[in-house]
Amino acid sequence: DIVMTQSPDSLAVSLGERTTFNCKSSQSVLHSSNNKNYIAWYQQRPGHPPKLLIYWASTRESGVPDRFSGGGSGTDFTLTISSLQPEDVAVYYCQQYYSTPTFGQGTKVEIK
Amino acid sequence: EVQLVESGGGLVQPGGSLRLSCAVSGLTVTTSHMSWVRQAPGKGLEWISVFHGNGNTYYADSVKGRFTISRDSSQNTVFLQMNSLRDEDTAVYYCVRMPTGYPNWFGPWGQGALVTVSS
Fold this sequence. Notes:
The structure holds 2 protein chains of 2 kinds.
Chain A: E1 4-7, E2 10-13, E3 19-25, E4 30-31, E5 36-37, E6 39-44, E7 51-55, E8 59-60, E9 68-73, E10 76-81, E11 90-96, E12 102-103, E13 107-111
Parallel strand pairs in A: 2-13
Antiparallel strand pairs in A: 1-3, 3-10, 4-5, 6-7, 6-11, 7-8, 9-10, 11-12, 11-13
Chain B: E1 3-7, E2 10-12, E3 18-25, E4 33-39, E5 45-51, E6 57-59, E7 67-72, E8 77-82, E9 91-98, E10 113-117
Parallel strand pairs in B: 2-10
Antiparallel strand pairs in B: 1-3, 3-8, 4-5, 4-9, 5-6, 7-8, 9-10
């Protein structure tokens, strides 16, 4: 199985600040047939199920605020929040669907 | 709007069995790709099974041979039969749609059902 590793495990960010966190796959998840990266990102607020934010590494799900953006290719990916809001306190997970789905261990975002 | 509502969770002894249900509205289970993902207390996410729209089923190695996914078109419901339960199966089990097939991203998610395996 492809192993997903996220960094950092947690971070504290000031409201309105820009933050980026990372996700690395143990092998490339870029499919040569369609030139797409098989990566999704989720947000899990305390006491709630995960919520899909981004798929194909950079495509925002309908209704997701545009302060969330995804990037990267191959084995290295990022999720950026351009201006942190109070409701963004959550754990963020990356997931690959290039093969049997696997998730990263999560990055916990708190308010500084 | 798609809604997924899990039920059937609870406390079970090691070696026991439990069946989870996922009542689905807003889409038809027989033409959708329905999956189960679990989350152990305080831990990350683990995909465990999918019932593809074409009738094929897939399982994670951790549950293969012990868990069975099924669906009932008359109830528009997906089930997860869990046998030979172990302590490490303790988790919240989420019913989730895979929008365009398998493997795929997951969404939307149900609220989850807690399964506790303990003597």
